[in-house]
Amino acid sequence: MTSREQILSKIKTHQPELTSLPAPLTTVPGTVNLIELFSSVLVSIGGAVVEADSYEEIKNYIKQTFKDQKRIISTLKELADVSEQGWESQDPHSYENVDLAIIQAHFGVAENAALWITEELMHQRAVPFIAQQLAVVVKRSSILATMHDAYIRIGNAEYGFGTFIAGPSKTADIEQSLVLGAHGPKGMTIFLLP
Amino acid sequence: MNTAGKDHAQLSDVFNEDEARVNWHDETLWFVRAKRDKAAHNIPEWESLRENASQIKDNVLSNLHDYLISFEANAEKNGIKVHWASDAEEHNKIVHAILKEQGVNRIVKSKSMLTEECHLNEYLQHNNIEVIDTDLGERIVQLAEEPPSHIVLPCIHKKKEEIGELFHEHLGTPEGMSDPVFLTAAARVHLREKFITRKAAITGVNFAVAETGEFVVCTNEGNADMGAHLADVHIACMGIEKIIPERKHLAVFLRLLARSATGQPITTYSSHFKKPRPGQTMHIILVDNGRTTQLSRPDFRNSLKCIRCGACMNTCPVYRRSGGHSYHTAIAGPIGSILAPNLDMKKYADLPFASTLCGSCTNVCPVKINIHEQLYKWRQVIVKEGYADPKKAMAMKAMEFTLSKPGVYRSAGKTARWFLKNTPFAVNNKLNPWYKQRDMPEVPKQSFGEWYKQHKND
Q1: Residue A66 near residue A187, CB atoms below 8 Å
Q2: Where is the 4Fe-4S ferredoxin-type domain (chain B) (predicted)?
Q3: Euclidean distance between CA atoms B260 and B40, whole angstroms
Q4: What mean pLDDT do residues B155-163 have?
Q5: Segment (H or E) for B426
Q6: pTM of the prediction?
Q7: Which of B82, B93, B110, B229 to mutate: most A Cβ within 10 Å?
Q8: Whose CB among A110, A133, B184, B282 lies 3.0–4.6 Å from A100's, allowing a Cys bridge?
């Protein structure tokens, strides 16, 4: 018998009587302002929120705030003036010198400030992790209340890789002192568009 | 710390030699527990989330056979290679064979308690493969040549000055430098070089979805992603109990996991790996290593519902004051104490006794495992099977004799009170384990029984 057969047959013998799955949980309706909640949670986990009316405003913000950054890449054509484009097909290791990556998210979640981003929005899986700083553009109307809503939105979507990102990379492994920028981005800026 | 042959009580003695350090350890973990409470209280439906998670996991255990088969089929359809391992040795051999086939002898690994349980690092090092643990806390204990002392906070037992010393020795940071921001930055540079140069990455698995064949890995540091997305080969190691039925169930578990673990609303990264990226190979190893045996024990199978948040450790008065290493097993604390005896009842016979049975672990458990009840049940199994500490077994016999004979009980009480009052040195000495780290209480003049007799007509 192979290990697979052995394990499966032991399970079949020992698993308890079938119990049913519980009814799915849904978001408890409330009156909270989702944008306010999203923003306050994001700030509490070390991120920054910039409300912008247009890509022009985002470009101006990038020019001012990130003017000292050498390599800025983006997946957004709208930001071509302020970022490198056409970088998508390089070896992922080559993004090691990226100072700022600006990408898009499908949606955000108010309860934990997480953003859902799949592979096609990253172009390369390594990008949101290897960049020194990460900026993400998301529509205000795409801020959902909870993770239950998030998975309803995701549904049966097909992706090779997808991730929820909530704030900059962090660690508190040394005496529980919170330090931003463990291995991934040291900072995370969210641009909220109308 | 060399734990060989010592039991929890003896190892706790070592930990308790430095009282100030014990107090610090205790307070730090209580601080994490308090953050968990705050996060939980922020969610009015917290209790229904726990109940829902518990029921999903009950369903998983009752249908594990079919879920594993559908997970395997879906993962393979997604282009992932699936392996099965009956025990730790087979798991280690599979990992080694994959690396050998790829000609890789240096790898990065993110946190995986399963690989700790299987002693994968030692196995690979023995076969001339260098393993770099990339979680900061795990890298620190790896440099110190110690196992992690906590499943979520691997170096919670270490002071920043000790970490500074380790980094000075191994990473060349200035002597005496112990600032966490500085040390973390030094580790970032040190580990980036490893991420960039290593061709294979091992990660753990938090959840594997039967319906879709994808698996989810949660980190705050981003080390699992840095490793996996830069490597040509990604090996994900998981216990067979990590399966969940459907993608939407992730909502429930991701809402509970980080809040229970550290009080964060979610970990920074919750990465869903479904297919290898073009040119990459992705492997999953499904490991039994005693889990099917635990499934066969009706009293203990619920322990397989665990999502490894560590809440039961942070809240445990014994864990906080004895440290993770005193449990001499990969998973410390209350949950570890019900998992370990399943693997080796004799070696871990002491662990179910390392508890006050206060029940706090059960109250914070996000999947409602009846941890303290299982600890109590393990004690009975262990005594019955003859694995209990002989001193404990003798004391239990004396207790049984005394408690079953009212006359003996009354005179024993009277005698004890007389001795405590008139000859305190008879108990306040090193021979009495209750005197360690404690002052004996003041002695009452009479027992409750005597008091009641006197006052029942008042």
Answers
A1: no
A2: 296-326
A3: 7
A4: 96
A5: none
A6: 0.93
A7: B229
A8: A133
